[in-house]
Amino acid sequence: MASQKREDHHRIYYIYEMERLYRQGAYSDAELGERLGTDRTNIYRIRKLMTEELGLAIVAHPEERGKYYLLPGQEIAHIPFSREEAVALYLAGRRLQQQTRTGQRHVANALEKLSTALGRPLAEKLVRAAAVVLAQEQDPQQEAVFATLVRCWLEQIPVRITHRTLHGQPRRYLVHPYQIEPSVWGDGNYLIGYSDYHGKLATFKIARIERAVPATGTYTIPEDFDIHTLLNHAWGIWHADDDPVTVRLRFSRYVTPRVRETIWHPQELLHVLDDGSSEWSAPVAQPREMVPWIRGWGADCEVMEPTWLRQELAAEARRLAVRYGVATQAQVPRYQRLWAKANSRTGETHPLICHLIDVAQAALALWEESFTEGLRQRFAQALNLDVDAAGRTLAFWAGLHDLGKASPGFQRKYKPAVTELETTGLPFPPAFADEPCYHATITTCTLGRLLAQVTGLDQALATSVAWALGGHHGAWPTALQVRNTKQNQIGDQAWDEVRRTLVEALQQLLQPAPVTRLGADQEEAHAVLTLFSGWVSVADWIGSMEDAFPFAMAPVNVDEYGELAAYRARRALRRLRWDGVATYPLRPFTELFPFQPNDLQKVAMELADQIQEPALVIIEASTGQGKTEAAFYLAARWGHRLRQRGLYVAMPTMATSNQMHRRTRAFLQALGLNEVDPLLIHSQARWLQDAPPPSLQTEEEPDAEAERPAVLDMQWFLPRKRSLLAPFGVGTVDQGLLSVLQTRHFFVRLFGLGQKTLIFDEVHAYDTYMNHLFRRLLGWLRAMGTSVILLSATLPARTREEFVRAYLGDDSAEMPDVAYPAITWATRTQGARSCKIPKPPGRLVQLRWIDRSPQTMVDTLQALLQGGGCAAVICNTVGRAQALFQALQAAGFLDEQELLLFHARTPLAWRDETERAVVGRFGKDGQRPQRAVVVATQVIEQSLDLDFDVMISDLAPVDLLLQRMGRLHRHERDGRPESLAQPTLHVAVDVDQAGVPAWENDGYVYEPYVLFRSYLALQERRHIATPQDTAGLIEAVYGDGPEDLPAPPPAWVEPLERARMKMEERERKAHFEATRRLVPPPDHPDLLWRGSDDLQEENPAIHDAFQALTRLGPPTLSLVCLHRVNGGLYTEPDGSGPQVELDEEPDSTLVRALAMHTVQVSHQGLVRHFLDTGRPPTGWQNHPLLRNHHVVIFEAGEAQVEGLPYRLRLDRTLGLEILRQEPA
């Protein structure tokens, strides 16, 4: 009998241990036997018992042969508990049940099982207590949510949740659950995990999760995640990235004994004083979470520090006093009764004086924590003040941006305030309902005179400051708008007095210094006011963040509220990651790059030490000569010496931006800025949002634009625009050009670009219209103290001179002689100069001519690649590339893996795969195939470091042909086929019977006159020597006269002249369109008050005249390609990827997926069709990123466009095809 009991005990032990281990992983019988000290046969018998008699789902592992594991999701059984342990779990369950109003079946069932296990007679009473839970109101939805969260947490499956904030709207999130944690203070349970939307850990109250659905895939909880460490400084459940704040409280002697009974915080210190009272302190991550607990002690608890928490409790006490009639509103000064923000749902308002202080402190926080010393010095020198005085003065001015809200025209917008203000003697004269009333314009109307009177500022200077502040919503007011503002909107003497009081209150708080100038000359003054306007707009957005600056209640102590607002502003900057200044350490060239500098880079290094002020540098050299590394070195040296704010790299296209982003990140890491990741900024990168935009408090103005300003302003907190404000960014040239177009908040862009180094790559790719914009941008960048580096393989002399003179702001500046390759540089004090670069070893590229027919090109490739080799075929249009690719497929001499098609008219997700495949095979360190052909468009002619043995190219402008040639024999390598040992470019061009070239669709891509001249310059050549021939060819094609070109054949004369006239007409139009859209130059006397057309960005639905075009040409359209599979819509044709509900606003994860499946289309038939007949889906129309996107739904890879003779076909290999339908 005793031996049988021992055997039973051993078997029970093995069952418990085997179940525990099976839950952890998969084991073979032999492994478990060795681990548990028994033989494999015994393990086998017990495993069979556990599956057949105990019902445990122990199954063979699908991938690890001979091993078994317990299926996830099985009931947890056979956990031995002592009675004390069972009671502890019972108490935890009771606590969980008491926290919610609705019954939770899993809680009731757990309580019942625990109660039964405890034995009679106690069990019967406890079972009844469990029944109370089931008697509560049931919530099956919450039960389902909890079950899903538990499953996803335990099985490490991402979960999609729909969560609503207490007063907000539901929002969808993708979360990796790391922990389900109860609140210490009993307000529920919380899900803690990585949120894709926030880009970091986030906390969600489970009771507010309306829906939870498992997502695809799995995740791994980081090894360094520890809930105890995370919440070590938390008061309850809320953790923070910031350092904890020391909270110090004083308790009265009456409650000190109660305080001593409990450990309220793991790191608390309690000191009992002689009079019986006590001081309690602890480092707390989110002290605001303590407010209800502190409030619960009433007058027996006093907050000693931090100051802002004491002030918040004091404000709370005042609200309580008013609520209970202990104090009345009569104690509120008249100027503090004016409101700036209102919540119509709750009836709360935020006092105007508080908002002015909020924004002033936000501006000061930016000055102290985000601005470099160089930028602070720039402002201080312009104002002729020291840095501290300049900061206080400018923050004082910034705070006065909304002074115009102290007017009857604005205050009447919130009806409940009118009667109260009238009782204080502020009259509201009648106003017509349709009279416009812009509070920012009223600021301009009223502030200038008050600044002069109160601070002694010169009246002209005061007027300029007021005008700059009047533009804080995006555009400076015009002189006509100021003149037409009605007196009944501005108010009478009583309103003047209250505005003066506001100015004096802010003056007393910030102590501005006397100012006698805004700059040494008009240009510097305008530059300072433009930077200031951008700064004020950003400060206003920060000061309007709802969660950072909650509504206050008057009366307020201005000094105390100023301290509180300063703390809130610094905290807001930390949340936005705008605190701290990236400083450039000094690094030698060989630490930044893994090679020795070449001749070009050595010249750049010497130049970096010579230039002592913001400069323009133009580096012209052949592809592959290290221009980018030279530019990075210059940027690093200038950043250190000139104390610049950062770096922005502007590329001509999105594809080149993606490539440059990787190179810029590597450079910054080599520089030692490991914590800095440059933001990628272009029309696709904007989707890759690392954090949600904050909610902005707004006043609803009847005269606001159709799209509310807050919706548009929030876009500035998205990466696409925020990257201009961040220290380091990479993107397209378009974002830079927008800063000199009459767009809303153009001065914010200029502010973001000021005092940085800007690198513009491939500047030869700009057309006439872009060149006009770019020259204006160069003038503004010099005025902003920005250094500019231009990189180009080839630049016409005229273009180079125009760029230099534009930067210097001097159309008559003398130009140096420049011999290619060269570095040209210019500063305001030293003028323009040039550095010679030793010419690299030349190379000879053979030139061959073929016709454009697909058959000729197929035959040529077949002959060229008989002995192997890698060829590139560059077509000027996507349609031609697709047709040629299909012709090569049909020819059959290449295997499937030997043929690639690479162009931009394909979803980004697929295009990235193709780009990686191209770089992986033909890049410098690629796994090069024995034979291959890449058919591509212009996507491979810039920035991609590729090397081909032979190339065929459609005829293009000569500078682009030279650029394409740079991909021929680019790298030194062995093993090229003997027949391709000499680099050869085959140029494809068709001519008619008279010998005149036929441009077909290429004439829509490139200027026909330039194509004519390029053909004339090249047609008699059999080779091109680089770099020797480069400058001559460029001048021959782009120079002013025909002297360097062969005489055209007689048949060419008429079409050539026709092409020239059309080009000149287009250039005149481009000049007109650019001039009409551009902001004035920085020295324009009417800069501030001439007005803005408020051109719109990225809205192809409006007329061209109202668009901020950075490129002149037909509009394009963003099409999101979705696939209907089994009745649902998905991003991939096989039904993989996320499912899309078009009537729901997508979360950030889905937005990324939609971005990766978006195609830009320029086909004008399609563009006009969608703009005229289609609308974005319902769930996208108010989304700041999706509102101008349209959807195409494919079934089996095809989509019919109703009303047009086209059908669309989408294929992973060919991309998007636009096929004409033949009439039936």
TrEMBL record:
Entry keyword set: Antiviral defense, ATP-binding, Helicase, Hydrolase, Metal-binding, Nuclease, Nucleotide-binding
InterPro entries, alphabetized: Cas3-like_dom, Cas3_C, CBASS_pafABC_assoc_protein, CRISPR-assoc_Cas3_HD, CRISPR-assoc_Cas3_HD_sf, Helicase_ATP-bd, Helicase_Cas3_CRISPR-ass_core, P-loop_NTPase
GO MF annotation: an example: helicase activity
Signal peptide: none
Upper lineage: Bacteria, Bacillati, Chloroflexota, Caldilineae, Caldilineales
Any single GO BP term: defense response to virus
Gene3D superfamilies for the chain: 1.10.3210.30, P-loop containing nucleotide triphosphate hydrolases (3.40.50.300)
All copies of domain HD Cas3-type, residue ranges: 345-542
Family note: In the N-terminal section; belongs to the CRISPR-associated nuclease Cas3-HD family.
CDD domains recorded: Cas3''_I
Record-given protein name: CRISPR-associated helicase Cas3
UniProt domain Helicase ATP-binding: residue ranges: 608-813
PANTHER family: PROTEIN PAFC, PTHR34580
UniProt cross-references to Pfam families, sorted A to Z: Cas3-like_C_2, Cas3_C, Cas3_HD, WCX, WYL
Domain of life: Bacteria
